[in-house]
């Protein structure tokens, strides 16, 4: 790992240093057979930046982009960074409500879309949701028609890594999305921490199957540039298609989230021998990973899962390392990444002892710069300036952090707090269970009752109520924590664009 690279404070500087050190190293590989080296990416970014500059995009210009994961998306994003524009990436699964809200709140001057893609007209959507604005943005194609110009006409690259140049939005469910402000420095700090934790080097080949517009996009590209290795990009994800592309290109790392681990494991079990022969580890985050999934992958695929923990406001908080013990990898989210301070705070505001549960609060150079709606910040930070994640967890004696639930995902049954995640971890040990969500439902006697919603595993019979109760008893759960209601969900559990299970939809459905 090269400390010179890790010390970069802006995205243009990071790319330029990697191109200088490793000009011929492949950086971007896609599932259509294209490859671009570090130098080719740098040169193309400069040409695209010059083309964007001719359109009137420069330092501070607000630009929204709604694009799938492909080379052009990464080139456009780096070109905007080269100009110092303020970019607002939006995951391409989002539609009118979220896209319209973001365009309006960021006062976007330009919007890049893929046009018609995947059976949906993104350009028409962007035009429609902008029509009523006082200054509607210019809507352009950012899929395969990126503008080009003469790089010699470019202004100097921005050098202020602290300036807010990224606006990411958390997905709203019952309220408007929250705009999260980031700088190059905050995103580079997060990606650098990921790079150190995953112990990657130039022999690795990574993978990006998740939406690059997700906060994990810059995390991953920073890791690639810091460590000097390429990644295989998947534009339209299917498990079989992704696995084939990974195998063909010799991928050594894959993942994205718990749902991806499960899908890749299922593909691996369809063939004799490893379906991705060079794979040395899976890694990801974004949702809890039941320990059972780690042990199943380790047993059947012979590789570890290095799971991590982050959020839009703090892209990387903790990350498992391939060299961690099985116990650490299976039962924690990893140790805090370099530079991230994690504190566990009890409900009375005092510090929790090792192994004692409390709210996870974080600080460090990867923490966001505030919300676009500044009124949200008073409740988001404590008196010491630490961000209140809303997650419950414990920090073990070895420094690793285990999440135990959400402050707002606690079921209060007869005045007793019950962690949904604790019950879910038990349910995931059962072969009948593909996915599980434990929710609290209104109940006149108890206040809330504990309800388990199950997605049945392929080839298995539905879990019965008695089997569920027996499993909870065998795991040593208190009787009060055992679900009093079982629902077998028809079809996959509802998820958002980042694969998180939408419990509010399940509560509405089963209340």
Which keywords apply here?
Rossmann fold; alpha/beta; 4-stranded mixed beta sheet; 511 residues; 5-stranded mixed beta sheet; 3 domains; GMP Synthetase, Chain A, domain 3; globular; single chain
Instruction: Quickly give the CATH architecture of the largest domain.
Output: 3-Layer(aba) Sandwich
Provide the CATH superfamily of the largest domain: ANL, N-terminal domain
Number of helices: 16
Question: What's the number of extended β-strand segments?
Answer: 26
Strand content: 25-35%
Mean pLDDT: 94
Q: Low-confidence stretches at least 5 residues in length (pLDDT < 50)?
A: none
The major sheet is characterized as:
5 strands, mixed
Shape field: globular
CATH C-level class of the largest domain: Alpha Beta
Structural class: alpha/beta
Helix content: 25-40%
What is the CATH fold-level name of the largest domain? Answer: Rossmann fold
**Overall tally of domains:** 3
Compute the gyration radius: what is it? 23 Å
Lateral arrangement of strands in the main beta sheet: 13-14-15-16-17
Gap between N and C termini, in Å?
A: 52 Å
């Amino acid at each position: 790992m090269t400390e010179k690279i890790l010390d970069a404070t802006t995205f243009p500087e990071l790319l330029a240093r990697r191109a200088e050190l490793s000009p011929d190293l492949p950086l971007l590989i896609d599932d259509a057979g294209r490859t671009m080296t570090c130098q080719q990416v740098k040169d193309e970014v400069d040409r695209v930046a010059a083309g964007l500059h001719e359109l009137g995009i420069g330092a501070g210009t607000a630009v929204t982009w709604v694009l799938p994961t492909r080379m052009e998306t990464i080139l456009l994003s780096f070109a905007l960074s080269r100009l110092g524009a303020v970019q607002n990436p939006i995951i391409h699964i989002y539609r009118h409500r979220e896209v319209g809200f973001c365009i309006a709140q960021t006062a976007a001057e330009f919007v890049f879309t893929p046009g018609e893609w995947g059976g949906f007209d993104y350009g028409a959507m962007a035009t429609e949701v902008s029509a009523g604005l006082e200054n509607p943005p210019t809507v352009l194609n950012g899929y395969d028609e990126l503008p080009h110009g003469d790089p010699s006409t470019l202004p100097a690259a921005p050098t202020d890594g602290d300036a807010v140049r990224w606006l990411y939005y958390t997905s709203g469910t019952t309220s408007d999305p929250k705009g999260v402000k980031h700088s190059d420095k905050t995103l580079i700090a997060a990606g650098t921490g990921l790079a150190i934790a995953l112990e990657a080097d130039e022999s690795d080949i990574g993978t990006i199957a998740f939406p690059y517009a997700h906060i994990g996009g810059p995390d991953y590209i920073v890791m690639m540039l810091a460590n000097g290795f390429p990644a295989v990009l998947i534009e339209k994800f299917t498990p079989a298609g992704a696995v084939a592309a990974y195998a063909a290109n010799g991928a050594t790392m894959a993942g994205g989230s718990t749902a991806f681990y499960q899908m890749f494991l299922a593909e691996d079990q369809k063939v004799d021998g490893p379906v991705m022969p060079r794979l040395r580890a899976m890694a990801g985050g974004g949702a809890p990973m039941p320990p059972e999934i780690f042990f199943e992958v380790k047993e059947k695929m012979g590789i570890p899962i290095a799971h991590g923990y982050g959020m839009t406001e703090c892209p990387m908080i903790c990350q498992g390392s391939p060299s961690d013990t099985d116990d650490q990898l299976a039962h924690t989210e990893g140790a805090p990444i370099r530079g991230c301070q994690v504190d566990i705070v009890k409900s009375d505001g005092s510090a929790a002892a090792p192994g004692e549960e409390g709210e996870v609060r974080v600080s460090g150079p990867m923490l966001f710069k505030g919300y676009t709606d500044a009124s949200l910040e008073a409740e988001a930070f404590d008196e010491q300036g630490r961000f209140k994640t809303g997650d419950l967890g414990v920090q073990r004696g070895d420094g690793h952090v285990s999440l135990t639930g959400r402050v707002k995902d606690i079921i209060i049954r007869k005045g007793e707090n019950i962690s949904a995640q604790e019950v879910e971890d038990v349910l995931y040990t059962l072969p009948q269970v593909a996915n599980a969500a434990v929710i609290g439902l209104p109940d006149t006697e108890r206040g809330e009752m504990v309800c388990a919603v199950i997605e049945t595993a392929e080839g298995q019979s539905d879990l019965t109520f008695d089997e569920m109760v027996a499993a909870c008893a065998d795991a040593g759960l208190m009787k009060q924590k055992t679900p009093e209601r079982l629902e077998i969900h028809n079809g996959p559990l509802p998820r958002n664009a980042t694969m998180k299970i939408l419990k509010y939809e399940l509560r509405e459905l089963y209340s």
